[in-house]
Every structure is written in C-alpha cells, then in structure tokens.
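Structure ticket #2291
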Amino acid sequence: MNTQVNFNFYNPTRILFGTGKLNDLHKQAMPGKKALLLISNGKSTRTNGSLDRTVQQLEMAGVEHVLFDRIMENPYKSVVMEGAAFARETGCDFIVALGGGAVLDASVAIAAMATNPGDLWDYVCGGTGKGLPLQSPGLPIVTITTTSGTASEINCWGVISNAETNEKIGFGDESLVPVLAVVDPELMRTVPPRYTAFQGFDALFHNTEVTISNGVNLLSETLALSAIEHIARYLPIAVRDGNNLEAREHVAYGSTIAGITMQLTSTTAEHSMEHAMSAYHHNLPHGAGLIIISKAFYEFFIERHACDGQFIKMARAMGVTDADKPEDFITALVRLQEACGVADLKMSDYGFCPDESMTLAKGARSMQGGLFLANPCEMTDEDCAAIFNKSYR
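Resolution: structure written out below.
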C-alpha cells in the first residue's frame, strides 16, 4: 500500500489549545453580537463551572447570549430543528457550542437550519436524505470542547439521528467549519473514567482508520501516527486520574489532530458500522460501539493482508517498538483496552441480539456507504455482518 504524496487541505478554524485557554476567549474577535449558547441536557457544564466561565467570557467580550440546553447523546433531528427555530426567534447571529461530541455535532446542523428552509433531512446525503445543497450559509460557530473524542470542534460535520427512520447520518458543509475552537483540558477533568476511555478510543480510531484508509497521504499519516502515539501513551493515565492535566492535554492533542487527519483522509467503514449500531440502539455510546467491533474489524483487513505495513507502523506508534507483523497492532489494541478497563464491553449489555447482524450491515451501507469506499479492500454486507457476529458477546 503506497502512501500518497498529494493532498488538499483547508481549515479556517483558529484553535486555542492548552490548559487555561478558555480564559482567552474574550480576547478573540467574535463573529456576531448575540450567541445561541448550546449545552447538553445533562448537568456537567453547570456543575463543573464551565458554563459560568463561558458566560463570563462572553460578557467580557460584549456578547449577549440565550441558552439552549436540550442536546442529548446521539442528538435527534427533532431537537436540531427546535434549536434552529429558537435561534431564529431570539435573533441569534452565531452559535457557541459548549460540550462534547453530541453538542458540537448538533451545532453544525443547528447553524445550517437556522438560516435554511425546510427540514434537516432535505440536506442530508445518504439514507432517506434528499441531498439538496444549502441555500444560505449557516450561522458562524464557536466551539468549546469539554471532551476528547470526536474532533468536531474543528470540522464541519455532525452526526444526527432520525428517530422516525432509524437512521444516524453525518451532515455537513464546508461553509459550516467553526471559526474558532477552544480546546482547554481543564474543562475535561470531570469526565468520568469510563467516558474518558470511550471518547479516547473514538479519537484513536479516527486516526487508525485514516492510517489504513486507501486515501492516506504523507501528511495525514504523519499526523495520525503522532496522535496514535500520544493517545496510546496517555489515555490509560487520564482514565486512572482525570485530574492529570498532562495526560488530558496529550489525549486532547490526539483528538484535535484527528480533526485535521479526517479532513485530509476519510475514515473507514468502522464508523459506518458503529453509527448503524447506535441508530438502532440509542443508549450505546459511540466510543463503546467502536471498541466492541474494533478487534474483529481490524482483523478482517489483517487476515487479507490489505495493508500490513500500515498496521506495523501503528503497532510501533502504540509502543510495540519491535513490531514486525500486522498482528502486533491487535496485541497493542487489546492491551490498551485492558489498561483502560473497556475490554469487557458486550453488545448484549446494550440490548443487541445475534440475529441483528445483517440488519446492521445493510444499515451501515445505507446510512454511510461512502466510508466503505475508503476501506483498504472490499467489504461486502456478508463480511460486515460476520464482523458483527464475531464481535457479539
């Protein structure tokens, strides 16, 4: 497998990265005068002080705000439409998204629908979406991430669930790339250990998928391997001690870098497969689903010798310094999952049944079939179902 030298890259997001960077938000040029401040429907941003700190920063910047606190894990299209209507009704001219992947993903869709007519699914490509182009640019977005996982803070994509059709599909447009992102590991200290692991593996798999993708290039591979190294070394520490800011910083680095690698090179069908899983089982955290299928997913390509060299590079980045065969990556992956306490996850714990595998496989291709094209070799629906079967416990 040859790594391409040519690539296209454009990212207009100004990134404030590092401990304490939220304190600098008020010094930045704001893209509007009144913000729709998005948070989740949980308590974390209120209890850990990040909401109060963000409001203070907006006030210091001379910006008004209204709060929308309805975003749930695996955000629904219906809530996106509510948020967009609320932004219009209250006269907001930009969005501040404070939270984890769900909030950041939702901000992209809300920004678009605040300025465009119709329904979000009119503009979604894939599944039952109509794939229409946006008629107007969305509202500008400022992101403040409180987790290390999705890298949504610097990209123009959000994955939204449609409860009416049992679909979970990525939506995005280049015009929706955030103008400013704050990545402050101080805001991540209160993420519980289990979710620190789930989110960290999401970040890891963004980078491992890029590395084995048939579109990998010199820049995306270099950045992805760096991110893989930092996540593998520091994620177990962050899981054990959430207050370890050094570990939080390095995991956050690996996550944010994935936002760049994914713009340079597509991820693969691992993400399509997980989105199908959580489309049918909304209680499944995205990172947990990825962990559950990861071993069987990567073994599929190793058994077919689709990109042996890439797996060896990743194994070395993950600490197997003398790695000389692709299977060494699986050894490193399982070791990392054990170190983070997530090697025991079961599909059955989230309500899955063994006879769902083909439904999930077909759903993955229907919802996000484009990611299958990035796989390093062909994967049929039967292959996909077999990976689900192999992962089932």
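Closing remark: The first strand starts at residue 14 and ends at 17.
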